[in-house]
Specification:
Structural class: alpha+beta
Number of strands: 19
Radius of gyration: 46 Å
Number of helices: 7
Distance between the termini: 84 Å
């Protein structure tokens, strides 16, 4: 009896513990059948769910939730369509400043290496790194002792030759020697004088002076260093005018040469910090040969540098700007791209949208200059491009091109 009573108590406690879990499982099954009744009405799941609920008002509550969910989806769907209305505008013809950008390397128009002309010990360094110098200023001096001694020796030889010539001329006047003896004495003197000039030049080479106004660069040797002929001591840059070299693709080179107003192209320089250099430049030269590996040709822009802001070796961006008269302009976001070709939807008078390929002449921040494919009398889809299909009739709102251009902010989709 005690064992039977104990089993009864255990079964009762287990039932009380498992009862909430069973009720929860039943509710989950009912929700499963109701949700599938909405997605698959043809499978008869709704009636099965209603049979499984088995409680008054349960199926009604579920239907109320499904209806509320459908209504919310319909409301969201209508708001979604309302937010993506189709807007149409027209291309516009206007004078546009077309600007092309090219990365450039900036060089001084005169930039040389200052090299030792003779070997020896570096006795004097008369300038500091980064110092501005004038033409003729002393830069370096090599210990001249050896060259001074050589010069004195050659000068003595020249004096000896001069005395011998004078003696020979006196003897010639006394008819003691013949004319050829005088000629030999003169030749000997000329040779000695040439050695003096050579020794003087070698002595002068020990003193290095600035060949033009400029800025001294890093010093490669220190005072007291033993240097050899040809060693680079420093570099000197004349930054009064700067040359900016940039590479131009062949197609743009041909456009530049074919332009009737190429001499009126505005040349500007943007520095590494994003600011424009205050002085405009000119196209100074175009190199003779194309680079066969890159297909580019080098242009050179010349910029005055009165404040010496630019230095040799800087980088920047050259801007070539010219005015394109009556250019056909459209927003970039009115176009789309398929396989590297650009298209726009053109809406006819019948309201039918037709996909059309366009050829872009150049691009700016948020507009395209059209070379071929559109004219100002046509309408193009501006917003809602993703909702339009080729050959489809569309309902749209029209927005004036002037208003569109004033508020452009975005690129093409």
């Amino acid at each position: 009896m005690k064992i039977s009573a104990f089993r009864t108590i255990i079964l009762g406690v287990s039932f009380l513990v498992l009862l909430p879990a069973c009720n929860k499982l039943s509710d989950l099954k009912n929700q499963y059948y109701v949700s599938h009744a909405e997605a698959f009405p043809s499978e008869g799941l709704a009636s099965h769910a209603e049979h499984r609920v088995g409680e008054p008002g349960s199926h009604k509550d579920q239907n109320h939730q499904v209806d509320h969910h459908d209504g919310h989806q319909d409301e969201h769907r209508s708001e979604h369509h309302g937010a993506h209305k189709i807007v149409v505008t027209t291309p516009v013809a206007k004078d546009v400043v077309s600007t092309q950008q090219f990365v450039c390397q900036i060089h001084s128009w005169r930039h040389i290496e200052v090299c030792a002309l003779e070997g020896g010990y570096l006795e004097t360094i008369a300038v500091q790194e980064g110092q501005r110098v004038k033409q003729g200023d002393l830069l370096f001096k090599i210990l001249p002792t050896l060259y001074e001694a050589r010069l004195e020796s050659d000068m003595a030889e020249a004096q000896l030759a001069q005395i011998e010539l004078q003696n020979t001329e006196r003897l010639f006047e006394q008819n003691i020697v013949a004319q050829p003896e005088v000629a030999l004495a003169k030749a000997k003197l000329a040779k000695a004088q040439a050695k003096v000039n050579l020794a003087q030049a070698e002595l002068n080479f020990t003193t290095l002076r600035a060949p033009f106004d400029g800025i001294v660069d890093k010093q490669h040797e220190q005072q007291g260093s033993l240097i050899e002929e040809g060693d680079v001591l420093t570099t000197l840059s004349d930054n009064s005018t700067m040359w900016a070299y940039f590479n131009v693709p062949e197609a743009r080179y041909l456009q530049y040469e074919a332009s009737p107003d190429k001499d009126n192209v505005k040349v500007e320089l943007v520095l590494a910090d994003g600011n424009k250099f205050p002085h405009a430049g000119t196209i100074g030269a175009i190199e003779a040969d194309f680079n066969n590996e890159t297909g580019n040709i080098a242009f050179r822009g010349d910029f005055p540098n009165p404040q010496h802001l630019l230095r040799h070796g800087q980088t920047g961006t050259v801007l070539l700007s010219r005015v394109v008269a009556n250019a056909i302009v459209i927003p970039q976001r009115a176009t789309f791209e398929i396989l590297a070709k650009k298209y726009a939807f053109v809406v006819g008078d019948d309201g039918v949208a037709q996909q059309r390929e366009i050829v872009v002449q150049s691009e700016q921040d948020d507009i395209y200059l059209i070379k071929d494919g559109l004219d100002v009398n046509e309408k193009i889809v501006l917003e809602g491009i993703r909702q339009v299909r080729d050959g489809e009739h569309v309902q749209y709102e029209f927005q004036a091109a002037e208003d569109v251009l004033r508020s452009l902010k975005y690129h093409a989709e």
